[in-house]
Fold:
Amino acid sequence: MSPANLPPSSASSASATDAAPTAGKVYLIGAGPGAADLITVRGARLLAQADVVLHDALVTEEMLELCPQAVKISVGKRSGQRSTAQQVINERLIECARQYRLVVRLKGGDPMLFGRADEELRALDSQNIPYEIVPGITAALAAASSAQRPLTKRGIARSVSLFTSSTAPDEPSEFIMPNGDTLVQYMGGREAAATAQRLLSLGYARTTPVVVVENCSRDNERILDLELGTLEQGLAQCSGPVLVMIGEALASRD
Structure:
C-alpha cells in the first residue's frame, strides 16, 4: 500500500472534542480603596463584561453592582479571621478559566501591592492561562487624598515606604522597619502599637505626626490625627481596614 493510500492515523482522526479545553482569559483588576466610582474606567468596563467574578472580602456590594450579569464568588481573605486559603483561590481561578470566557479576579486596592498576585499569576502560568492586570488606586494614595495630607513635601519628605508587618504562618516573624521620610503601614490596625514602639526605639520623636485612616473612601470612613507617642497605646477602637501613615509630611497645615 502506497503512503497516499494509508488509512488516517488515530491522532489525525481524533475528534475536536478530544482536544484540551480552551481556557478563557483572566483579568486581575484592582478595585481601588472601596468607593465604586474610584475603580478605573477599564476595570469597570471589564466588570460589566465578566462571566464570573472572584472577589475579595474588602470589595463592597456597591462595587459588585457593576457586574450584575456575572456569577460572583467570594474568596475573601481578612487578616486575623478565618478565610479562603490561597491555594484554594488559585484552584478556583483555574477552574473558572476553563469554564468561562472572561474571568475577573477582583482585588481591593492594587493587585500588585500586598495582593498576593505573584502566587495567582504563577498558578495561571502553570496552566498556560492568558491573563491581564488592570491597576487600581492603592490605599496609601487614597488615604492621603481623604486626609488631605500629601505623602511627600518639598524640603521635608522626598521618599515614601509602603510596608506591612503581617506575615503568613510559614514566614519568619522578624521584621526590619523600612527607611523612608514617610512610612505607610498597610493592615496596620493590630500592629500599630508595635510599630510605634519600634520607631520610638529607633529615635523617632513622640510628637511625630501620625494619620490613621479607617475604611478609606467608604461611607463609614474615619480619620484620626495622632502623634507617635499616642499610637504606642494601640488602635483598639478601629475595627475596619486600617492604614497608618507616619512622618513629618503629615503634620496639620494649621
